[in-house]
Amino acid sequence: TIQRIKILEYLMNTTSHPSVEEIYSTLKLIMPTISLSSIYNILSEFEKNNIVTKLMTSDNIIRYDYKKDKHHHIYYEDGKIEDLEDAELDNILNEYFKTKYPHLVNDNEINLIINIKTITPKNKRLWKQEESP
Question: Which regions of the chain are under pLDDT 50?
Answer without folding.
Answer: none
